[in-house]
Amino acid sequence: MKEQRSFIILFLCLLFLSLLNFSCKEEKKTPKKDPVLEYIGGDYYQDLIRTPVKPDGTIDTANMAKIKFTQDLHNFGTLKQGEKREHSFEFTNNGSLDLIVIDVKSSCGCTVASYSEEPIAPGQTGQININYDSTDRIGVQEKKVIVRTNSFPNQTELTIIADIIK
């Protein structure tokens, strides 16, 4: 009887352990996709946006898009109040991946930027078009335009200057 009881206890322990083993298997979870990044780059956004910082803190920019502007400052000179001017800041993708302009923001409502949302292939050029309206402005004006891309660094600051007279 004692043998039978030991056998039943052993059997129940093995049964419990096997059930525990099968029930605790981790399900393979699919990583959550970032809807903003997916909107920017579609299903392949992870191929387009890359973090260049390695775990040891060094920066690897070899396999990235690289934006290089021919100039980052434009001086309109002296303008009469109310005049409107435009300027195109040209750039080249000096990297090894397609360059994507994610966003362009200006520091003031008097400065409006436009750009192509199409990827710029390595070695190709693009431009950021700036429209400046001097209405209700007077004196020396300096306006900033921030260009965000999938390159490193991911932000570039462009500046326009004008001296507004009446």
Short description:
With 166 residues, this protein is an alpha+beta fold.
Low-confidence stretches: none
Extended strand count = 8
CATH fold-level name of the domain at 65-165: Immunoglobulin-like
Described by the principal axes of the CA atoms, the overall outline is elongated
Biggest sheet descriptor: 4 strands, antiparallel
Q: Assign a percent range to the helix content.
A: 10-25%
Report how far apart the termini are. 111 Å
Mean pLDDT: 81
Instruction: Based on the coordinates given, report the CATH architecture of the domain at 65-165.
Output: Sandwich
Name of the level-1 CATH class of the domain at 65-165: Mainly Beta
Question: How much is the radius of gyration in Å?
Answer: 29 Å
Helix and strand run = HHHEEEEEEEE
Percent of residues in beta strands?
35-45%
CATH superfamily of the domain at 65-165: Immunoglobulins
Number of helices: 3
Cross-sheet strand order for the largest sheet = 1-3-6-5
